[in-house]
Structures are given as C-alpha cells and as structure tokens.
Amino acid sequence: MLYANLRQYIWETLRVDPILNSYGIDAASLFGTYAPDSPAANLQRWVILRWSIEDPPPGRDTTSRRRPLFIWAYDRERDYTHVDLILQRCKEILYPIKGVQYSANGWITQLEQGNTSDDLFDSAYAAVTRSWDTTIVASGL
C-alpha cells in the first residue's frame, strides 16, 4: 500500500505492529507529531513521533532528503522495562525499511544509526520516558 507521505507511512507501520499493540501501542496511543496537552488518564504507555526539519538535499541530488525522527516512549507505571521494549521494537521495525516505496514518488534510501536518550522523568505527564532518534533518507518528501 502506498501512502500520502513519509509521516503517514511510519505512523501506519508502527500502528499495525502486533508486538507494539501487545505493549499497548496502537492508534489511540501513537501520536503522529507532538503530544496532546494531556494524554488520556487511562493511557499507561504511549509513543510520540516527533519529526524535525528536513535537511537540504545532499550534494547534487535534488530528490533525496534527510529527515530526523525522534521516537519518545512514555510509561506511567514508571517502568523503563516497557519503554525499552517499545523503543527496541521500533528499531526492529524501522531499520529494515530501506528500499521501501512508501508513496507514488517516494522511496526510503536508508535509516541512519541513532541514539537512545538517558532515563528521563516527565513531571507534566507523571511518566518515565526515553527517546530514540534516527534520520531517514528518502525521496518524495
């Protein structure tokens, strides 16, 4: 299936994963960009996909762009075990997607190795959190 853009493709790919679903990450707890002011009080775990500004095309290539993506996993049970499982599964899903056509004019060239943040506590959400970042190189952005 082809999607309208890279954001939609990544969101849908993570949303339908049965292992992420078993961790409580689904359409209701996967936020495509930023978070609501207050995630539903009944959400124990959720993920926020934060997209950064795409870089200009590398060299003479006018079709490919580098698009940083930060994936934030939260857990109100204050258990980093679940956060780690969620981020690890996101890596397992996303690293193999190079060479995938995600839209009529868009192809993913590669995902660059990213970093995982330190243990953090978000007092506004009363949840532990950690992020993983990667950069997606793709055409058709």
What does this structure look like?
The protein has 141 residues and is α+β, with helices and mostly antiparallel strands. The chain has a single domain, classed as STM4215-like (2-Layer Sandwich). The protein is built from three helices and seven strands, in the order H-H-E-E-E-H-E-E-E-E. Strands 1, 2, 3, 4, 5, 6 and 7 form a seven-stranded mixed sheet that branches. Strand 6 and strand 7 form a beta hairpin. The chain is elongated and about 50 Å long. The two termini are 17 Å apart. The model has no long low-confidence stretch (mean pLDDT 91).
The CATH class designation is Alpha Beta
Beta-strand percentage range: 25-35%
The stretches of 5 or more residues where confidence is low (pLDDT under 50) are: none
CATH topology: STM4215-like
| Mean of pLDDT | 91
Helix content: 10-25%
CATH architectural grouping: 2-Layer Sandwich
Radius of gyration: 15 Å
Question: What structural class do you assign from the helix and strand content?
Answer: alpha+beta
Element string (H = helix, E = strand)? HHEEEHEEEE
Q: Count of DSSP E strands?
A: 7
For the biggest sheet, the summary is: 7 strands, mixed
The helix count comes to 3
